[in-house]
Specification:
Chain lengths: ~100, ~100, ~100, ~100, ~100, ~100, ~100, ~100, ~100, ~100
């Protein structure tokens, strides 16, 4: 099943630069691990914003949540989720 | 350039069923023409809502607007647009 | 998979009482068909509002959308959808 | 009486990891105590979000409030509450 | 149990003055019937707005919903509901 | 004159438990002083939320503001105020 | 007592030009009657919007509501009301 | 003085195509008259939306309002206005 | 030109009482200097809220911004601005 | 391609004055570098708010994001982005 996700990062203002850099490095590592697994299909930056739009394909809602919640910045993001399905006007056979 | 678009359809309550059916038929035809052109890359239904999430690649903002505004229901939709670009953590070379 | 759905009905003001009564009768028939199928597990009225909270279990996002979009008032409702999964603190083994 | 509750956790950014872990442990313990009592009937994670949807049955609004406000993270959550009642289209005799 | 309710009336623009006057007369009759029953305890106008704040005491969420949904303008109001309980700082023994 | 007030407390996350306890004790003392004066007529907890609904009768907007702003947590609350007056459908002669 | 009011006019789209012109003429007449009475102290247009900001002084919330609700477009406006009082930093002795 | 304006057109659903076409033609004529006068400096379409962003320079708030309110669709648009001034970091001497 | 301004103060929770008192004293001094200059015409407290409504007359948007941004709490307030002009129904010749 | 951008600065309350002054100095330097490059065409202060409206012309969404994200306060701003294109009623041949 496929989800469209919008993540807006709210950088904690009280963190030291070192703590933030550490989080960002682990964030990158985690998101790339999931991209390499083939489940995190698209990861786009929203131009001009500290935000991304992602398209994630998972075997279940549980797996989808496992992916998102493994991100170190998960507790500090404002996240919007849309569960997707086939549109009657779509000409593509599969979702992805 | 790539845009993520969210369209929420607000069906006018005063339209006859015939007028609505006519609009929906032309909406389908128009969206499929753009999908066949290769520019409207993904058209997904948001599960449980009269809404879609679309990924559209256009040569310019003008062409992107031409695609969206050619939809017969364009004046009756609530539309959110996000201009996308490469995310520093993305492993994919190109956007699509 | 399980979805929590909130539906707010926006009764079209220009409809005749006859047209509205017809829609409401078909709405009831459709929602009961799905409840009898075992997929629409809970249908609650929000006390004091023209709204419901529902818990729906479907085999796929497509089936979930088929259930919701089969409601005659579907185009005239404001619908919020949450895809659910197991909570780490839940003591119940299954979702339902 | 039955309530549908949505809790969005806003993790305080200035807390140490130790303080947060302590809160989360007590949060788990408290919510499980209420689940075991039979009053906190469903506790679901919203897929992809630091949020839950819960269905709670209480003898009174006072008891319902006692349950929610006993959670250690209660002052740090954004909480939405809906008081539920029987829907005229529901085929189930009781609410739960 | 006690509920605080806020009702904002959205007068349908397409109604004739006669239809509207008929609805308003029945609205008045219905709300006064409930006030006389002792269940609709307070009915206040919000100064400067087509809105009211009400305090309603009912035996159950079902009865509360029965009261609100019996109002002829129920489908054309934007309604906010708060279920109330005793505040730890309140000096009054009972809610009302 | 009568006001309906909704106060949502936003507990500052960086406060020590001691500082918070001190504020809460003074908050209780202040609100009870006003209740005993007969001006703060109702103080209800919103079930499931760190919020209250209050009905306050004051001689003037100045006195009403004096009451609310004397609360130690005043700068840390999100407050909504409604000035009330007699509803044409109300059967009660006075507001309170 | 003094109120700051913001009125946003939502012109009903289905009204004939004649009906609308009639309403606007009576709206003007009513607001000018209240201005001449000295109670509607300021009536300003918000530059670029179909909206006004008004400062109204009334003897009571009831009289304030009588003024606003006497406007023919009252049911078709989105109205925000603020009850004002003396600011501790104000150098002016009286409110107006 | 310079204003940034965002206009979102809400096409009335009940209008005939002829009435709408007439309004749109007069809208174009009016906006072009003001552009030719040199006061409506920029008129941009927001890509993918029935909306525009405009930069308007007027001699006074009154003249600015005269420009916007002369548009035939003025009562049917959702309009946001920002009054602009020189930014301390701007290198350009004048606003335009 | 005249502006209506709404300022909501968000007291930083981490400030010491001394730092806050210092800011508040300088805030008072600054706002009174502008009131004495005749440009800050009205400064009202919104009853029951840590907010004010102000009417400010300035020679230009630049001067208006100079007034507001000179307030020490300027970076910690949520500010809404409305540029005002003459209302066609106003009987008063001038704005103030 | 041209973007309209609205940036609302949320000054972190816990920063020292020295840290803030350092950020503001680097913010100025960065924005002026981009203005001198000819890409950041307009930078306006919104009168009365800690916000700006900017018009930026970039070769691609990537370049646009590079400009915005190079600002030191980028993680602490609330940013709204609109991708612009030619309006059918515009008389100007080019966007800028």
């Amino acid at each position: 099943m496929v989800y469209a996700v919008e993540m807006n990062v709210k950088i904690p203002e009280s963190w030291s630069e070192k703590k933030l850099a550490d989080y960002l490095a682990r964030e990158k590592e985690t998101s790339q691990k999931w991209q390499e697994s083939g489940k995190w299909i698209y990861l786009w930056r929203v131009a001009g914003q500290y935000a991304n739009v992602s398209i994630i394909e998972a075997d279940s809602p549980e797996e989808f949540h496992q992916i998102i919640s493994s991100l170190p910045l998960f507790p500090y993001m404002d996240i919007k989720v849309k569960s997707l399905c086939k549109h009657p006007n779509a000409i593509r056979e599969s979702l992805i």
